Amino acid sequence: MKQENFGMFDIPLSCSVFLEPALIKYAKNITPLPGSMLKFINKWNINLIDTMSYAGENIGSIGRKILSNTITSTNFPTNCVERARSVPLHSLHYAIRFSESINFLTKKIQQNPNIKFADLGCGFSPMAPVIQKEYNLGNVYCIDTPEITKYYQTVAMRTYGRAPTAITWNDAKDMVKSGALDTIVAMGVLPYMDIQDQISRLKFINANFQNFLVEIKYNNTDPTDEKVFDLKTLQKLRMSVENAQTLETTMIKNSLRYLHKFIYTVPNKRYFIANNRSLFLSR
Fold first, then answer.
1. What is the pTM of this model?
2. CA-to-CA distance for 268 and 246, rounded, in angstroms?
3. What is the widest separation between alpha-carbon atoms in the chain?
4. Which residues contact 213 (CB under 8 A, 6 or more apart)?
5. In angstroms, rounded to a whole number, what is the distance separating the alpha carbons of residues 282 and 246?
6. Which helix (H) or strand (E) holds 120?
7. Which stretches within the chain are classed as H helix?
8. What pLDDT digit, counting tens, does each position of 224-273 carry?
9. What angle do CA 81, 82, 85 make, to 5 degrees?
10. What Rg do the C-alpha atoms of the chain give, in angstroms?
């Protein structure tokens, strides 16, 4: 039996392709999206599928299956979200994570229409482009590998004629110190990094960014993954960052909000609490 393999683009591709049907399926359970964002996401995914058809060696067997089946049938992503083995749970996570990011940024823009924000680990998510278009923002940035941002910007230009500016993490550190950045969102990226790198970035973000929404993974039942926080590492982090009380209180509030949405939507999936789960830090 041929073993499946993941290419660099496979997981980011699946996150975006399955996002749209998940947002539709779980619309009653998530924070509503403003304006015409769902139409934008639909157009984004059409352009993403077409663009990824030329991505070559960065697409693995999983990505090729997603591409070929979606090209053959536009109902393929919806069918996967409805009944594929692990897609329904993952796509629910994508939908909640995306809608909460949009909700977070919308509130920040209402407070300050001129925010300057970056999407750290943008993958192929339409989050930054759809916010840029919806609110006509000028200072929007994306951070990922050069291979990903190349295609990401192509899809953005094809979708609405503009694209977030690609920068590096080092660029972002310089820009926030000079006032050229003030907001950062990091969803689904830190848990892929070494725990010490995560801690280093969290400390920097907390010390320098006026606004942030960051996802980490937590497991205090069976903390066997070295990239996942347990209670001990969280306590050390809390003790070593400024605004610890605010940070911790907001983390608990955001995470309980997420868990409530997840468990309410999928009440029989209680194992989610016992395994690695998302915690959200925000300000």
1. 0.86
2. 33
3. 55
4. 100, 101, 104, 105, 184, 185, 186, 187, 280, 281, 282
5. 9
6. strand 117-120
7. 10-17, 19-25, 37-52, 61-72, 76-83, 87-111, 127-135, 146-160, 169-178, 195-208, 231-240, 244-265, 271-274
8. 778 888 878 877 776 454 444 444 445 455 555 655 565 555 555 544 44
9. 75
10. 18
